[in-house]
Amino acid sequence: xxxxxxxxxKAATAFAPPAGAKVALSRVLGPGHVWALGVGIVLVGEFMGxxxxxxxxxxxxxxxxxWLAGILYTCVAMIDSEITSTxxxxxxxxxxxxxxxxPLMAFNVGLYLVMAYTMLEVSNAIVAGDLLQSFATDLGVxxxxxxxxxxxxxxxxxxxxxxxxxxxxxxxxxxxxxAAFVSIVALFFYIRxxxxxxxxxxxxxxTGLPYGSLGILAALHFGLWxxxxxxxxxxxxxxxxxPARSLPLGTLTGMMTLLIAATMTWYIGAGLMxxxxxxxxITPLYDAAKLTGNSYLEIFLFFGTLFATFASANxxxxxxxxxxxxxxxxxYMPIWFGAVHPKYRTPYRSIVFFVPIAILFAVSTPLDQTIxxxxxxxxxxxxxxxxxxxxxxxxxxxxxxxxxxxxxxxxFPSLLLMTLCCLAYFAVYLGYGTQLLAMMAxxxxxxxxxxxHRYKYVRRGDQFTMPWPRPQGY
Length: 474
Prior knowledge:
Blueprint (H helix, E strand, L loop, with lengths): L2 H11 L17 H12 L1 H4 L4 H6 L1 H26 L8 H8 L2 H36 L8 H18 L1 H25 L5 H10 L8 H10 L19 H30 L2 H4 L5 H9 L2 H35 L18 H17 L2 H29 L16 H41 L22
């Protein structure tokens, strides 16, 4: 008997599903993983990007935009927690729109999610390249790091992690996100914000509103970067052990974490750097650490920034692939994308599909434009989310179905969210009007393609997986 051949045969079939069995995503995640997914995607916004808001309106305008954006995303987190703890399916807001509104809305929301996360992943890869190049320059070996190679390797390696399994991927995110958050706290306490010397320095660097009150509105554009992506926790809905508990707990604690980190980050940047420099820095917290003169803290913030970019890109790959997978499974996109790996239980085709797309954007598009693309896609999704929760409460009142979480003061959060989204659109238009119009044209053309071509493949009856009663009024 040829034992090696028997072993090889057993190895090939060890993880294969039974014949005819449906391979599904694995339910292996808990609240900590949900927190790591949401905060891991977003925390990079504290290490880069937010400071462009300072360039738009000054440090005071950036702080105001930070808190306004915090209110906007608190509304998003509360609304998301209610709907997703009830609609526990991969795709997050896409699954919500599919069940609550209809196919065209669901297609658009799915596309917004995919583009928002992919462009955020691209932004992270660009910053990782810039950071390693800057660190090499500080060490006196400027030519040792090729930025383009770092970008490509970052995207490919993190896609490979996602391909291999969600539990290991998000456990890694939990560890490196926690380390990145600790680096912000360490820098905050090192500069001793309670000391009189630091307070005097902060007063000297703050210059009021150099562009007037309009600067606050303009700063709101990049103020969103402090929190963009927290809604990504919903993409794990089909892979958590207890959606009704884990999703609200992980999302809302993640939002609290980000509000604290955002305020500390603003204080650190505005307290150590003039607003003119801060407003154009690529890695503001790393630059702040260098200004302290403490080499250990500088290295800590280097790794903190690097970990934050990796955690964010890692989470973005996870979220974009889940949204695309869900659209493929429902035939909104070719069903080929709806496949699950028989061994790793991941949407492997959707993961691999976006690797060359992300690399192409990363090596050819400026950072501020990829950030704007991500922000605008997110804003479109938030606007429709405000509509979704109103229709959700109207069609399925509170006691008609079980909810894992009920957000308070309805409909005030949805109306406030809609108002702040409108302000953010105007803020983006002030600085990136051409890009805003071009993106709207892209999404309109995509909608026309779906209605005229793709919709005929959609099987409406197969989409509705929730055991809900008939909606009110039907």
